[in-house]
Design brief:
Layout (H helix, E strand, L loop, with lengths): L2 E8 L2 E8 L2 E5 L1 E3 L12 H7 L4 E4 H6 L3 H6 L3 H5 L5 E4 L2 H6 L4 E4 L2 E5 L6 E4 L1 H11 L3 E2 L12 H15 L10 H11 L10 E3 L4 H9 L4 E3 L2 H7 L2 E4 L2 E4 L19 H5 L2 H10 L3 H26 L3 H5 L24 H6 L3
Parallel strand pairs: 4-12, 5-6, 6-10, 11-12
Antiparallel strand pairs: 1-2, 2-3, 7-8, 8-9, 13-14
Helix pairs in contact: 9-13, 10-13
């Protein structure tokens, strides 16, 4: 049983506390994505040390391997993963969109064809709720049909009505242009129940988080910080850094002097550049560690600013609306770095 309390406001933005059986989540909060039960390259103790209060896992992937019955038999998802804090599981709705070529939707649910071996996997609203209960998660998502951006209006209406019939709830689609998504957030967030946490899935950049928090959204998840970190695209308070670039080869200072993560406290940009360029397996871990700490610290800054009525002041200090890496490339979506396969499967 979860209970949500709004603690402070600054305009539409708000801070709050979401109490769960495994701890309290202070909102607005960012949830690291551990698709298979772990953020790639990181142990649960490292997430705790970074300050993460909640982790997201994916029901579709866990149902395929090792299986819900196996996890339940081992004491549930907390015992299985070693993560003692709150857990949220996605319902498989993202894969309804991303694996459209491997699924069939009907009024009763969704039948997937496994991307691993082609075996059928059936998801129904009741079955999805039961599987998440068996896993023992703190926050369970309802099964929904998530249509692609740009789908015809009739198709969007059909998906929304079916989702409502499944769970009396619908959500924003996936892949819409930035301006469209922000407009939908501005319209939707104030219309959602005041006494419930508002969750925007799969978002995003610091600028995205700032915008959505400013309109009353409480919870976020995205593979962006960990995935980009593994590929050497690192967030700092002055913008994005592509650490593989030659300009960093002789930089003896820290990645971000204002960051308290172990990477910034102990290592130089030059050393990180060396590790990434050499293909050393430690490099992706360090990149993910730093980026996650940056995002978690940013959410802490947002909470503090809202509590003290200084959100506009903090917003003015953000490097740019959509920071640009130091090589001129653009960064604006959760799919920026990494391979297409992991993006399509919804893996972190």
């Amino acid at each position: 049983m979860s209970a949500f309390v709004v603690a402070a406001r600054d305009g539409r933005a708000r801070t709050g506390r979401l109490a769960t059986a495994h701890g309290t989540i202070h909102t607005p909060a960012f949830m690291p994505v551990g698709t298979l039960g772990a953020v790639k390259g990181l142990g649960p103790w490292q997430l705790e040390q970074l300050g993460a209060e909640v982790m997201l896992c994916n029901l579709y992937h866990l149902a395929l391997r090792p299986g819900v019955a196996t996890i339940a038999g081992l004491g549930g998802l907390h015992a299985f993963t070693g993560w003692s804090g709150p857990l949220l599981t996605d319902s498989g709705g993202f894969q309804v969109w991303s694996l459209a070529h491997l699924r069939a939707v009907d009024e009763d649910g969704v039948t997937f064809r496994s991307h691993l071996d082609g075996a059928p996997l059936r998801f129904t609203p009741e079955g999805v709720a039961g599987m998440q209960a068996a896993l023992g998660v703190d926050i369970a998502m309802v099964l929904d049909e998530c249509p692609p951006a740009g789908a015809p209006r009739a198709r969007l209406d059909e998906a929304a009505l079916r989702t409502r019939r499944w769970a009396e709830r619908a959500r924003v689609s996936v892949g819409e242009p930035l301006a469209d998504r922000r407009a939908q957030v501005e319209w939707t967030a104030p219309a959602l129940p005041e006494g419930r946490p508002r969750y925007l899935m799969g978002v995003g950049t610091p600028a995205d988080l700032l915008h959505a928090v400013g309109h009353g959204v409480d919870l976020f998840d995205c593979v962006l910080p960990a995935r980009n970190g593994r590929h050497g695209l690192l967030y700092t308070r002055t913008g994005l850094v592509r650490i593989r670039n030659a300009r960093h080869a002789a930089e003896g200072g820290p990645l971000d002097p204002e960051c308290a993560c172990p990477v910034c406290r102990r290592l130089s940009r030059a050393f990180l550049h060396h590790l990434f360029r050499a293909g050393e397996v430690t490099a992706p871990v360090l990149g993910a560690l730093h980026n996650l700490r940056f995002f978690l610290d940013f959410m802490g800054d947002l909470r503090e600013a809202i509590s003290s009525g200084r959100l506009a002041e903090l917003a003015a200090t953000v490097a740019s609306p959509d920071p640009v890496p130091d090589d001129g490339a653009t960064a604006g979506t959760c799919e920026l770095a990494g391979d297409n396969r992991s993006t399509t499967l919804g893996e972190g």
